[in-house]
Design goal:
heterodimer; A: 297 residues; mainly alpha; MetI-like fold; 13 helices; 0% strand; B: 275 residues; 2 domains; globular
Chain lengths: 297, 275
């Protein structure tokens, strides 16, 4: 009697909680290979920095973080990272808005799908390949310099690449699709009735644009700008190739400290600073996105 | 061109058209240049271009470096796609079907690799692999795990979206007609969300194929994905062979986006960063 009851109980619990089996594989993977590694990297960043030592020593200190703050090499890299990402967000907004507007207002399904496919292809294509194209365009022996010299406009190549300008152009190319996609939804959501109402009350098309459409797209503008900031500041490949290691930003230092110098604790500390800067803008982004999309951004 | 469309285009204004042109140029010119470089007949692309030939395409097929990296990335993306689709679809069903305390937190956890800088995730995993010494550091399974983490959010995002749109009453009708839960799911729900599942797996494939950041700390001379191989070669020269490899990658991306556009409504698709 007792046995069957126990067995039934067990089966009942098994059937009640069976759905958990669905999520278990993914959850275990994420706990072991995502939560634990990221947390251990945080812990490592607060351990005593010793070159070549990865094992946990348990000597907690803020030394690595103070070093980032005090050494101009690293502090400047943080400043460069933030300012390049901020500038890239601004330029991307100016360039991305008209395209987002065009796509949002194109009602022809085939044309709309075509434009969306172009943007998505540009976004999904491996960044290294896109940078190959940019580098052939902007290098000293590249197409722009080649064309300018061919038509005798300049005598020797002008430096378009391996400097901050190159990194900036790369970041804009990299993040433009993200900006466009963040804006399309919100622009499409603006009711044409509101714009027509302003027009019938005597506003010029220009006034309607600046006083009605732009303020109503503000949530999308904020969301897109913050998203672009977050992905630009995290990019390793763009400054590495377009800056030719002459424009030092945080992701480059992370790689250098770990892979080339074996400074595990210090490298982790830079990664933590990078992560927190990017997280901060993402948190603000999500607040904005939830407010504008009712939770479905 | 219909009258309505002409009016629509006129209303957009010249500025919008010029601006859109600039944006599209910035997006697409680098891609065209890669294609041109891969098809040009000179030793590198110059202005004006010398001519068109297939010599770099053939060079790519003979190249030990790029062909093997291309095939490596292709295989890695297939394995990642398969595993991510299975793990991610199951997890998405659980998150959308069962609400429990903390279900939002679980959803946020599964989508968080999207917001974590790739290089930070790569570093965290590398530290974990090296310090635990369980044989994953610079190994193939270690790389697959890293790629699964960055591709699963896309699967979970697209599958949850299609589950949200699915009318649960249909499945309940099947249940009330005597189908077992599993059968009702397999025969009714799955066919209805299959487009979302397939779109998610296409995204998983292409994100893995083009993945640079998390692969950076994982790559070895034996395990070199295409983006890493291209990166190492780009640091020194602009090899047209690399551009020829790029042409095939471009073709792959265009194909997968065309497939995606058949599977899901791109007009409702407003971002890849799912919240």
């Amino acid at each position: 009697m007792e046995d069957t009851k126990d067995k039934n109980n067990f089966l009942r619990i098994f059937y009640t909680y069976r759905p958990i089996l669905l999520v278990l594989p993914a959850l275990i993977l994420f706990i072991i290979f995502f939560i634990i590694p990221v947390l251990s990297m945080f812990v490592l960043a607060f351990d005593k920095p010793v070159t070549g030592v990865l094992d946990l020593q348990g000597k907690w200190t803020l030394k690595s973080f103070l070093r980032i703050y005090n050494r101009s090499l690293y502090f400047d890299a943080a400043v460069t990272s933030v300012s390049l990402a901020a500038l890239a967000s601004f330029i991307t907004l100016i360039i991305g808005y008209p395209l987002a507007y065009l796509i949002a207002k194109t009602e022809n399904v085939a044309r709309n799908t075509f434009l969306m496919i172009l943007v998505l292809c540009a976004m999904q294509l491996d960044m290294v390949i896109r940078l190959f194209g940019l580098m052939v365009l902007m290098g000293d022996n590249g197409l722009i310099n080649g064309a300018l010299m061919y038509f005798n406009i300049i005598e020797k190549p002008i430096g378009l690449m391996y400097n901050k300008l190159g990194v900036l152009v790369g970041l804009v190319q990299f993040s433009l699709p993200f900006m466009v996609l963040s804006l399309i939804g919100i622009i499409r959501g603006i009711s044409p009735a509101v714009v027509e109402a302003s027009r019938s009350l005597g506003a010029s098309p220009n006034q309607a644009f600046w006083k009605i459409i732009i303020p109503l797209s503000m949530p999308g503008i904020l969301a897109g700008t913050l998203l672009v900031f977050a992905i630009s500041i995290s990019s390793y490949i763009v400054p590495a190739l377009m800056g030719g290691w002459k424009v030092m930003v945080m992701p480059l230092h992370v790689y250098q400290q770990i892979a080339e110098m074996g400074k595990w604790q210090f490298g982790s500390a830079i990664a933590v600073v990078l992560f927190c800067t990017s997280l901060l803008s993402v948190i603000v982004y999500q607040r904005v996105a939830i407010r504008i999309g009712g939770g479905r951004a | 061109m219909s009258k309505a469309k002409i009016r629509e285009v006129n209303e957009l204004g010249t500025l919008v058209k010029i601006g859109s042109g600039i944006a599209l140029a910035i997006l697409l010119i680098p891609v065209f240049i890669v294609v041109l470089t891969g098809l040009n007949s000179g030793d590198h692309l110059t202005f004006p271009p010398e001519g068109i030939s297939l010599r770099w395409i053939f060079a790519f097929f003979r190249s030990e470096e790029f062909l093997s990296a291309f095939l490596f990335s292709f295989g890695l993306a297939l394995i990642t796609m398969t595993l991510s689709t299975i793990f991610g679809t199951l997890a998405a069903i659980f998150i959308t079907r069962f609400s429990f305390p903390g279900s939002q937190l679980l959803r946020a956890l599964f989508l968080s690799p999207l917001i974590l800088p790739g290089i930070v995730l790569g570093l965290a995993l590398y530290i974990f692999y090296v310090s635990t010494d369980i044989g994953l550091a610079r190994s193939y399974p270690g790389m697959v795990i890293a790629h699964m983490l960055v591709t699963m959010p896309y699967v979970i995002g697209t599958v949850s979206a299609s589950l949200f749109n699915f009318d649960l009453n249909l499945e309940q009708a099947a249940r009330s007609l005597g189908a077992s839960p599993l059968k009702a799911f397999r025969k009714v729900t799955l066919p209805n969300i299959s487009n979302g599942v397939m779109a998610g797996s296409v995204f998983a494939f292409i994100v893995s194929f083009g993945q640079f950041d998390v692969s950076l700390f994982m790559a070895t001379p034996n395990n070199t994905p295409l983006p890493i191989a291209l990166y190492w070669s780009l640091r020194y020269t602009f090899e047209p062979t690399a551009a020829a490899a790029g042409i095939f990658a471009i073709a792959l991306v265009i194909t997968s986006m065309l497939i995606t556009s058949k599977l899901v409504n791109l007009q409702k698709f407003s971002g890849v960063k799912f919240d």
